Amino acid sequence: MQTQTDSSINQPLLDINEAFSSKELLALCDRIIASGILGRSKHYAALLEYLVQCSLSGKSPKEIELAVDALNRGDDFDVSSDSRVRVYIYQLRKKLDSFYQSYEHHTPFRIVIPKGQYTIMAQHRASNTDIGTSHKDRKFNLSLNNGLLVSVIILLAINLMYMAIITRDNRGEISQAAAEHPVWNSVLQDDSPILIVMGDYYIFGELNANGNVARMVREFNVNSSSDLEEMQFTDFGRAENYLDLDLSYMPEGSAFALARIVPILQEGGKNINITMMSDLTTADIRENHIVYIGYISGLEKLTDMTFSGSGLQVGRSYDELVNAETKEYYTSDAGLPEEGQPFKDYGMFSTFPVSTDTQVVLISGMRDAGLMHTAQALSDSKALDDLIVAIDNDTDEALASFEALFEVLGIDRMNFDANLVYAELLDTNQIWAIPEPN
Length: 438
What we know:
The chain contains 17 helices and 17 strands. It has helices at 16-19, 22-34, 42-56, 63-70, 84-102, 128-131, 149-166, 171-179, 185-188, 225-234, 236-239, 253-266, 282-287, 303-308, 368-378, 381-391, 396-399; strands spanning 3-6, 11-14, 109-112, 121-124, 194-198, 201-207, 213-217, 242-249, 272-276, 289-295, 312-314, 320-323, 329-331, 342-353, 359-365, 402-411, 414-425.
Protein backbone atom coordinates (compact mmCIF):
# COMPACT_ATOMS: atom_id res chain seq x y z
CA MET A 1 0.00 0.00 0.00
CA GLN A 2 1.36 3.41 -0.98
CA THR A 3 1.05 5.88 1.88
CA GLN A 4 2.40 9.31 2.68
CA THR A 5 1.80 11.79 5.45
CA ASP A 6 0.50 15.27 4.81
CA SER A 7 2.01 17.25 7.70
CA SER A 8 -0.78 19.80 7.69
CA ILE A 9 -3.43 17.21 8.50
CA ASN A 10 -1.40 14.30 9.91
CA GLN A 11 -3.52 11.64 8.26
CA PRO A 12 -2.12 9.00 5.86
CA LEU A 13 -2.62 9.50 2.14
CA LEU A 14 -3.70 6.50 0.09
CA ASP A 15 -3.72 5.62 -3.57
CA ILE A 16 -7.06 6.82 -4.90
CA ASN A 17 -8.04 3.35 -6.14
CA GLU A 18 -7.82 1.95 -2.60
CA ALA A 19 -10.59 4.24 -1.34
CA PHE A 20 -12.84 4.79 -4.35
CA SER A 21 -13.99 2.80 -7.35
CA SER A 22 -13.87 4.60 -10.70
CA LYS A 23 -17.64 5.09 -10.61
CA GLU A 24 -17.54 6.48 -7.05
CA LEU A 25 -14.69 8.89 -7.82
CA LEU A 26 -16.34 10.24 -10.96
CA ALA A 27 -19.63 10.69 -9.08
CA LEU A 28 -17.77 12.54 -6.31
CA CYS A 29 -16.14 14.79 -8.90
CA ASP A 30 -19.60 15.62 -10.32
CA ARG A 31 -20.92 16.43 -6.82
CA ILE A 32 -18.02 18.76 -6.09
CA ILE A 33 -18.58 20.65 -9.34
CA ALA A 34 -22.37 20.78 -8.82
CA SER A 35 -21.93 22.18 -5.30
CA GLY A 36 -20.67 25.48 -6.72
CA ILE A 37 -17.67 25.42 -4.39
CA LEU A 38 -15.29 25.76 -7.34
CA GLY A 39 -16.65 29.20 -8.22
CA ARG A 40 -17.40 30.75 -11.59
CA SER A 41 -14.21 29.84 -13.39
CA LYS A 42 -14.50 26.74 -15.58
CA HIS A 43 -10.79 26.09 -15.20
CA TYR A 44 -11.16 24.57 -11.73
CA ALA A 45 -13.72 22.02 -12.91
CA ALA A 46 -11.58 21.15 -15.93
CA LEU A 47 -8.49 20.83 -13.74
CA LEU A 48 -10.27 18.59 -11.21
CA GLU A 49 -11.69 16.33 -13.92
CA TYR A 50 -8.28 16.05 -15.56
CA LEU A 51 -6.54 15.16 -12.29
CA VAL A 52 -9.21 12.57 -11.49
CA GLN A 53 -8.78 10.90 -14.87
CA CYS A 54 -5.00 10.88 -14.47
CA SER A 55 -5.24 9.38 -10.98
CA LEU A 56 -7.61 6.64 -12.17
CA SER A 57 -5.14 5.72 -14.88
CA GLY A 58 -2.16 5.91 -12.53
CA LYS A 59 -0.63 8.88 -14.34
CA SER A 60 1.11 11.78 -12.59
CA PRO A 61 0.95 14.68 -15.08
CA LYS A 62 3.64 17.29 -15.49
CA GLU A 63 3.00 20.98 -15.07
CA ILE A 64 3.14 21.62 -18.81
CA GLU A 65 0.55 18.88 -19.41
CA LEU A 66 -1.83 20.53 -16.96
CA ALA A 67 -1.32 23.87 -18.69
CA VAL A 68 -1.97 22.51 -22.18
CA ASP A 69 -4.53 19.74 -21.60
CA ALA A 70 -6.55 21.17 -18.69
CA LEU A 71 -6.09 24.95 -18.92
CA ASN A 72 -6.00 25.18 -22.73
CA ARG A 73 -2.65 26.95 -22.91
CA GLY A 74 -0.49 26.68 -26.00
CA ASP A 75 2.41 24.27 -26.44
CA ASP A 76 4.78 27.20 -26.00
CA PHE A 77 3.59 27.77 -22.41
CA ASP A 78 6.66 28.45 -20.24
CA VAL A 79 6.23 26.89 -16.78
CA SER A 80 9.47 28.45 -15.59
CA SER A 81 8.19 32.01 -15.96
CA ASP A 82 4.42 31.55 -15.65
CA SER A 83 3.09 30.35 -12.28
CA ARG A 84 -0.49 29.97 -13.51
CA VAL A 85 -0.66 26.21 -12.99
CA ARG A 86 0.71 26.44 -9.47
CA VAL A 87 -1.78 29.16 -8.59
CA TYR A 88 -4.71 27.10 -9.89
CA ILE A 89 -3.54 23.97 -8.08
CA TYR A 90 -3.10 25.90 -4.84
CA GLN A 91 -6.57 27.39 -5.14
CA LEU A 92 -8.13 24.04 -6.08
CA ARG A 93 -6.55 22.45 -3.01
CA LYS A 94 -8.21 25.11 -0.84
CA LYS A 95 -11.55 24.69 -2.61
CA LEU A 96 -11.50 20.95 -1.90
CA ASP A 97 -10.89 21.76 1.77
CA SER A 98 -13.88 24.11 1.69
CA PHE A 99 -16.06 21.42 0.09
CA TYR A 100 -15.42 18.98 2.91
CA GLN A 101 -15.97 21.69 5.52
CA SER A 102 -19.46 22.30 4.10
CA TYR A 103 -20.51 18.94 2.63
CA GLU A 104 -20.27 15.18 3.14
CA HIS A 105 -19.20 15.37 6.75
CA HIS A 106 -19.72 11.65 7.40
CA THR A 107 -17.87 10.11 4.46
CA PRO A 108 -14.96 7.90 5.57
CA PHE A 109 -12.59 9.21 2.88
CA ARG A 110 -11.93 12.52 1.17
CA ILE A 111 -9.81 13.44 -1.83
CA VAL A 112 -6.78 15.72 -1.57
CA ILE A 113 -4.03 17.14 -3.74
CA PRO A 114 -0.77 16.53 -1.85
CA LYS A 115 1.48 19.56 -1.57
CA GLY A 116 4.16 19.63 -4.25
CA GLN A 117 2.30 17.10 -6.43
CA TYR A 118 -0.15 17.14 -9.31
CA THR A 119 -2.25 14.12 -8.47
CA ILE A 120 -5.40 13.17 -6.57
CA MET A 121 -5.06 10.94 -3.53
CA ALA A 122 -7.43 9.71 -0.82
CA GLN A 123 -7.32 10.45 2.87
CA HIS A 124 -9.10 8.82 5.76
CA ARG A 125 -11.15 11.38 7.66
CA ALA A 126 -10.62 11.64 11.41
CA SER A 127 -13.63 11.06 13.64
CA ASN A 128 -14.77 13.57 16.20
CA THR A 129 -13.19 11.52 18.98
CA ASP A 130 -9.84 11.73 17.19
CA ILE A 131 -10.00 15.48 17.05
CA GLY A 132 -10.33 15.96 20.80
CA THR A 133 -12.77 16.59 23.60
CA SER A 134 -15.81 18.78 23.19
CA HIS A 135 -15.56 22.47 23.99
CA LYS A 136 -19.22 22.81 24.97
CA ASP A 137 -18.49 23.00 28.71
CA ARG A 138 -15.74 25.57 28.43
CA LYS A 139 -16.54 29.08 29.60
CA PHE A 140 -14.23 30.70 27.08
CA ASN A 141 -13.70 29.13 23.68
CA LEU A 142 -11.53 30.77 21.01
CA SER A 143 -12.42 29.32 17.60
CA LEU A 144 -9.55 30.04 15.21
CA ASN A 145 -9.30 29.42 11.49
CA ASN A 146 -6.26 27.42 10.40
CA GLY A 147 -5.13 30.02 7.90
CA LEU A 148 -4.87 32.62 10.68
CA LEU A 149 -2.67 30.47 12.91
CA VAL A 150 0.48 32.55 12.57
CA SER A 151 -1.26 35.84 13.29
CA VAL A 152 -3.18 34.43 16.25
CA ILE A 153 -0.12 32.79 17.85
CA ILE A 154 1.74 36.11 17.77
CA LEU A 155 -1.30 37.94 19.10
CA LEU A 156 -1.89 35.50 21.94
CA ALA A 157 1.79 35.44 22.90
CA ILE A 158 1.79 39.21 23.35
CA ASN A 159 -1.58 39.00 25.06
CA LEU A 160 -0.37 36.42 27.58
CA MET A 161 2.70 38.47 28.45
CA TYR A 162 0.54 41.50 29.03
CA MET A 163 -1.98 39.53 31.07
CA ALA A 164 0.81 38.26 33.32
CA ILE A 165 1.70 41.86 34.18
CA ILE A 166 -1.78 43.24 34.81
CA THR A 167 -2.79 40.30 37.01
CA ARG A 168 -0.92 41.98 39.86
CA ASP A 169 -3.18 45.04 39.54
CA ASN A 170 -6.40 43.31 40.55
CA ARG A 171 -7.55 43.27 36.95
CA GLY A 172 -10.32 40.84 37.88
CA GLU A 173 -12.09 43.33 40.12
CA ILE A 174 -11.74 46.11 37.57
CA SER A 175 -13.15 43.91 34.78
CA GLN A 176 -16.09 42.89 36.94
CA ALA A 177 -16.94 46.51 37.70
CA ALA A 178 -16.79 47.41 34.00
CA ALA A 179 -18.91 44.39 33.02
CA GLU A 180 -21.63 45.49 35.44
CA HIS A 181 -21.81 48.93 33.82
CA PRO A 182 -24.97 49.60 31.74
CA VAL A 183 -22.91 50.34 28.61
CA TRP A 184 -22.05 46.62 28.37
CA ASN A 185 -25.59 45.37 29.09
CA SER A 186 -26.51 45.05 25.44
CA VAL A 187 -24.04 42.20 24.86
CA LEU A 188 -23.71 40.62 28.31
CA GLN A 189 -27.28 40.46 29.67
CA ASP A 190 -28.80 37.90 27.27
CA ASP A 191 -28.13 34.47 25.78
CA SER A 192 -26.77 35.51 22.37
CA PRO A 193 -23.17 34.38 21.72
CA ILE A 194 -20.31 36.87 21.40
CA LEU A 195 -17.95 36.94 18.45
CA ILE A 196 -14.78 39.02 18.75
CA VAL A 197 -13.73 40.29 15.32
CA MET A 198 -10.12 41.41 14.95
CA GLY A 199 -9.40 44.01 12.30
CA ASP A 200 -6.77 42.33 10.16
CA TYR A 201 -5.12 43.21 6.87
CA TYR A 202 -4.89 40.54 4.19
CA ILE A 203 -1.45 39.98 2.63
CA PHE A 204 -0.33 37.71 -0.19
CA GLY A 205 2.90 36.59 -1.79
CA GLU A 206 4.58 37.67 -4.99
CA LEU A 207 6.49 34.95 -6.81
CA ASN A 208 9.86 35.45 -8.49
CA ALA A 209 10.97 33.85 -11.75
CA ASN A 210 11.78 30.60 -9.94
CA GLY A 211 8.27 30.30 -8.52
CA ASN A 212 9.34 31.18 -4.97
CA VAL A 213 7.73 33.83 -2.77
CA ALA A 214 9.97 36.89 -3.09
CA ARG A 215 8.01 39.36 -0.96
CA MET A 216 4.73 40.01 0.85
CA VAL A 217 2.21 42.39 -0.70
CA ARG A 218 -0.58 44.48 0.81
CA GLU A 219 -3.18 45.88 -1.62
CA PHE A 220 -5.89 48.10 -0.15
CA ASN A 221 -8.53 46.73 -2.54
CA VAL A 222 -7.59 43.08 -1.90
CA ASN A 223 -8.90 42.08 1.50
CA SER A 224 -9.51 38.33 1.19
CA SER A 225 -8.65 35.23 -0.81
CA SER A 226 -11.72 35.77 -2.98
CA ASP A 227 -10.61 39.35 -3.77
CA LEU A 228 -7.20 38.04 -4.86
CA GLU A 229 -8.79 35.32 -6.95
CA GLU A 230 -11.02 37.90 -8.63
CA MET A 231 -8.01 40.06 -9.45
CA GLN A 232 -6.15 37.05 -10.85
CA PHE A 233 -8.93 36.52 -13.37
CA THR A 234 -9.73 40.14 -14.20
CA ASP A 235 -6.16 41.45 -14.35
CA PHE A 236 -4.04 38.38 -14.96
CA GLY A 237 -1.13 40.29 -16.45
CA ARG A 238 -0.70 42.13 -13.18
CA ALA A 239 -1.60 39.34 -10.77
CA GLU A 240 -0.24 36.21 -12.45
CA ASN A 241 2.65 36.00 -9.99
CA TYR A 242 0.55 36.62 -6.88
CA LEU A 243 -0.03 33.70 -4.54
CA ASP A 244 -2.61 33.36 -1.77
CA LEU A 245 -0.68 32.52 1.41
CA ASP A 246 -3.77 32.68 3.64
CA LEU A 247 -2.02 35.20 5.90
CA SER A 248 -3.02 38.42 7.57
CA TYR A 249 -1.50 40.85 10.06
CA MET A 250 -2.92 43.02 12.81
CA PRO A 251 -1.90 46.27 14.53
CA GLU A 252 0.21 45.99 17.69
CA GLY A 253 -2.44 47.85 19.67
CA SER A 254 -4.91 45.01 19.05
CA ALA A 255 -3.11 42.80 21.59
CA PHE A 256 -3.38 45.47 24.30
CA ALA A 257 -7.05 46.07 23.47
CA LEU A 258 -7.87 42.36 23.41
CA ALA A 259 -6.30 41.88 26.84
CA ARG A 260 -8.46 44.69 28.22
CA ILE A 261 -11.77 43.64 26.66
CA VAL A 262 -11.73 39.83 26.95
CA PRO A 263 -11.91 39.75 30.80
CA ILE A 264 -14.97 42.00 30.66
CA LEU A 265 -16.71 39.71 28.17
CA GLN A 266 -15.82 36.67 30.27
CA GLU A 267 -17.83 38.13 33.13
CA GLY A 268 -20.95 37.42 31.06
CA GLY A 269 -20.34 33.67 31.42
CA LYS A 270 -20.72 33.04 27.69
CA ASN A 271 -18.65 31.15 25.17
CA ILE A 272 -16.59 33.69 23.25
CA ASN A 273 -15.41 33.01 19.72
CA ILE A 274 -12.83 34.97 17.77
CA THR A 275 -12.32 35.49 14.07
CA MET A 276 -10.65 37.91 11.69
CA MET A 277 -12.50 40.60 9.75
CA SER A 278 -11.36 38.99 6.48
CA ASP A 279 -13.33 35.86 7.48
CA LEU A 280 -16.43 37.56 8.91
CA THR A 281 -19.67 36.56 7.17
CA THR A 282 -23.14 38.09 7.05
CA ALA A 283 -24.42 35.07 8.98
CA ASP A 284 -21.90 35.80 11.74
CA ILE A 285 -23.27 39.33 12.09
CA ARG A 286 -26.83 38.05 12.20
CA GLU A 287 -26.23 35.28 14.75
CA ASN A 288 -23.77 36.88 17.22
CA HIS A 289 -23.08 40.00 19.18
CA ILE A 290 -20.06 41.46 17.37
CA VAL A 291 -17.24 43.07 19.35
CA TYR A 292 -14.81 44.63 16.89
CA ILE A 293 -11.22 45.41 17.92
CA GLY A 294 -8.92 47.15 15.44
CA TYR A 295 -8.27 50.19 13.29
CA ILE A 296 -11.11 52.20 11.73
CA SER A 297 -9.54 51.38 8.37
CA GLY A 298 -10.01 47.67 9.13
CA LEU A 299 -13.80 47.83 9.59
CA GLU A 300 -14.44 46.57 6.04
CA LYS A 301 -17.85 44.79 6.19
CA LEU A 302 -18.93 46.91 9.16
CA THR A 303 -18.00 50.28 7.65
CA ASP A 304 -21.39 51.13 6.11
CA MET A 305 -23.27 50.05 9.24
CA THR A 306 -20.95 52.09 11.45
CA PHE A 307 -21.25 55.37 9.56
CA SER A 308 -24.77 55.18 8.08
CA GLY A 309 -26.40 56.50 11.26
CA SER A 310 -23.35 58.33 12.55
CA GLY A 311 -22.69 62.02 12.99
CA LEU A 312 -19.12 61.32 11.84
CA GLN A 313 -17.94 60.57 8.33
CA VAL A 314 -14.63 59.34 6.95
CA GLY A 315 -12.56 62.21 5.57
CA ARG A 316 -9.74 62.13 3.03
CA SER A 317 -8.50 58.87 4.55
CA TYR A 318 -9.26 56.59 7.49
CA ASP A 319 -6.88 58.76 9.52
CA GLU A 320 -9.47 61.53 9.41
CA LEU A 321 -13.09 61.88 10.53
CA VAL A 322 -15.42 64.82 9.94
CA ASN A 323 -18.22 66.03 12.19
CA ALA A 324 -21.15 66.16 9.76
CA GLU A 325 -22.90 68.94 11.69
CA THR A 326 -20.05 71.26 12.69
CA LYS A 327 -17.67 70.33 9.82
CA GLU A 328 -14.89 69.96 12.37
CA TYR A 329 -12.03 67.72 11.25
CA TYR A 330 -10.40 65.13 13.51
CA THR A 331 -7.12 64.14 11.89
CA SER A 332 -4.53 61.73 13.25
CA ASP A 333 -0.83 62.43 12.74
CA ALA A 334 0.23 59.29 14.63
CA GLY A 335 1.77 57.85 11.48
CA LEU A 336 3.94 60.89 10.75
CA PRO A 337 6.08 61.95 13.75
CA GLU A 338 9.65 60.78 14.19
CA GLU A 339 10.79 58.80 17.21
CA GLY A 340 10.31 60.71 20.44
CA GLN A 341 8.05 63.35 18.87
CA PRO A 342 4.53 63.94 20.27
CA PHE A 343 1.49 63.22 18.12
CA LYS A 344 -2.29 63.36 18.16
CA ASP A 345 -4.46 60.32 17.48
CA TYR A 346 -8.16 59.46 17.78
CA GLY A 347 -9.99 56.51 19.26
CA MET A 348 -13.59 55.68 18.37
CA PHE A 349 -16.25 53.78 20.29
CA SER A 350 -19.61 52.90 18.80
CA THR A 351 -22.42 50.54 19.72
CA PHE A 352 -25.65 49.85 17.85
CA PRO A 353 -28.15 47.02 17.23
CA VAL A 354 -28.07 45.18 13.90
CA SER A 355 -31.12 43.01 14.59
CA THR A 356 -33.69 42.45 17.29
CA ASP A 357 -31.27 40.03 18.98
CA THR A 358 -27.73 41.18 18.24
CA GLN A 359 -25.53 44.21 18.86
CA VAL A 360 -22.29 45.56 17.41
CA VAL A 361 -19.68 47.10 19.72
CA LEU A 362 -16.69 48.82 18.13
CA ILE A 363 -13.43 49.44 20.01
CA SER A 364 -11.33 51.14 17.38
CA GLY A 365 -8.82 53.85 16.61
CA MET A 366 -7.14 55.55 13.72
CA ARG A 367 -3.80 54.16 14.96
CA ASP A 368 -2.48 52.19 17.94
CA ALA A 369 -2.66 54.99 20.52
CA GLY A 370 -6.32 55.70 19.76
CA LEU A 371 -7.21 52.01 19.76
CA MET A 372 -5.42 51.39 23.05
CA HIS A 373 -7.06 54.33 24.81
CA THR A 374 -10.54 53.33 23.62
CA ALA A 375 -9.99 49.86 25.10
CA GLN A 376 -8.82 51.44 28.36
CA ALA A 377 -11.88 53.70 28.51
CA LEU A 378 -14.29 50.82 27.86
CA SER A 379 -12.69 48.78 30.63
CA ASP A 380 -12.82 51.53 33.27
CA SER A 381 -16.08 52.17 35.12
CA LYS A 382 -15.29 55.87 35.71
CA ALA A 383 -14.60 56.46 32.01
CA LEU A 384 -17.86 54.64 31.21
CA ASP A 385 -19.69 56.97 33.58
CA ASP A 386 -18.19 59.93 31.72
CA LEU A 387 -19.64 58.55 28.48
CA ILE A 388 -23.14 58.46 29.96
CA VAL A 389 -22.81 62.02 31.21
CA ALA A 390 -21.54 63.16 27.79
CA ILE A 391 -24.52 61.80 25.87
CA ASP A 392 -26.86 63.23 28.55
CA ASN A 393 -29.22 60.27 28.30
CA ASP A 394 -28.94 57.11 30.37
CA THR A 395 -31.96 55.21 29.04
CA ASP A 396 -31.45 51.66 27.80
CA GLU A 397 -32.27 52.71 24.24
CA ALA A 398 -29.64 55.45 24.29
CA LEU A 399 -26.93 53.26 25.80
CA ALA A 400 -27.53 50.71 23.06
CA SER A 401 -27.02 53.24 20.24
CA PHE A 402 -24.35 55.90 20.63
CA GLU A 403 -20.82 56.76 19.59
CA ALA A 404 -17.86 58.60 21.07
CA LEU A 405 -14.54 59.97 19.89
CA PHE A 406 -11.42 60.38 22.04
CA GLU A 407 -8.56 62.73 21.21
CA VAL A 408 -5.38 60.95 22.32
CA LEU A 409 -1.97 62.53 22.85
CA GLY A 410 1.06 60.28 22.77
CA ILE A 411 4.69 59.60 21.91
CA ASP A 412 6.16 56.61 20.06
CA ARG A 413 2.74 55.03 19.45
CA MET A 414 1.97 55.06 23.19
CA ASN A 415 -0.96 57.03 24.61
CA PHE A 416 -0.26 59.40 27.52
CA ASP A 417 -3.33 61.63 27.78
CA ALA A 418 -6.78 61.79 26.23
CA ASN A 419 -9.96 63.86 26.10
CA LEU A 420 -13.49 62.94 25.11
CA VAL A 421 -14.18 65.33 22.23
CA TYR A 422 -17.41 63.95 20.78
CA ALA A 423 -20.32 61.82 22.02
CA GLU A 424 -23.71 61.57 20.32
CA LEU A 425 -26.66 59.25 19.89
CA LEU A 426 -26.89 57.29 16.65
CA ASP A 427 -29.75 57.35 14.16
CA THR A 428 -30.25 53.57 14.05
CA ASN A 429 -33.05 53.89 11.50
CA GLN A 430 -30.40 54.69 8.91
CA ILE A 431 -28.40 51.47 9.41
CA TRP A 432 -30.66 49.40 7.14
CA ALA A 433 -32.17 52.29 5.19
CA ILE A 434 -32.13 51.95 1.41
CA PRO A 435 -29.83 54.65 -0.05
CA GLU A 436 -31.66 57.31 -2.03
CA PRO A 437 -30.75 57.49 -5.74
CA ASN A 438 -28.43 60.30 -6.76
